[in-house]
Specification:
By secondary structure, this protein is of the alpha/beta class. Helices cover about 35% and strands about 20% of the residues. It is built from five helices and seven strands. It has a seven-stranded mixed sheet, sandwiched between helices. α3 packs parallel to α4 and α4 (about 130-145) crosses α5 (about 160-170). The longest helix has 18 residues, at about 90-110. Bound molecules: adenosine-5'-diphosphate. Adenosine-5'-diphosphate (ADP) binds near residues 15, 41, 122 and 156. This is Appr-1-p processing domain protein. InterPro entries: Macro_dom (IPR002589), Macro_dom-like (IPR043472).
Amino acid sequence: MKFGDVKIEAIKGDITKQDDIEAIVNAANAQLQMGGGVAGAIHAAAGKELAEETKSLAPVRVGEAVVSGGHNLPNKYIIHTLGPVYGFNQPEEEFLANCYKNSLLVAEETNIKSIAFPAISTGAFGYPFEAATEIALSTVRDFAKEAKSIQLIRFVLFSEKDFQHYHDRLNSIK
Ligand code: ADP
């Protein structure tokens, strides 16, 4: 889908294997350390220098985003954001929207042209997938209208079912 000059797309895949993307987003923990899920995969692929670098950037608050280098990943940058724990960090809609908004703001400050997001908070943090998808897509769409440096926003979904859901919703948003 095209919103203004920005292309928004969804693919099924692994966030650590996005060779053509300048910055990937990490669904991080507050301490910006390894953990499980997306954060575990990103730290494993980036190497231990990432944890060294992010030590000085931590802790981050819910909804906040910070940028680091990509280290051994194919990406120049990693943008780390802390999603809300569903049912705990409230209002969770606002916190989740802030994750997407602040990641995109940091990307623009860094003059990044392409960015890939995982489905933040929908794993260990328990956010229902459908509700999280609506927030992700509407927040990114609204941002795209006023984007400056960003030209491509990609959602990377881990399962076929999650990908299909994004694909369907992406085709219906205006
Ligand atoms: P959170 O703690 O924010 O819930 P998780 O890492 O537990 O984050 O999960 C977020 C989402 O990312 C889930 O939908 C999960 O299926 C997906 N996911 C897990 N590993 C990867 C990966 N390597 N690439 C893309 N998505 C992933």
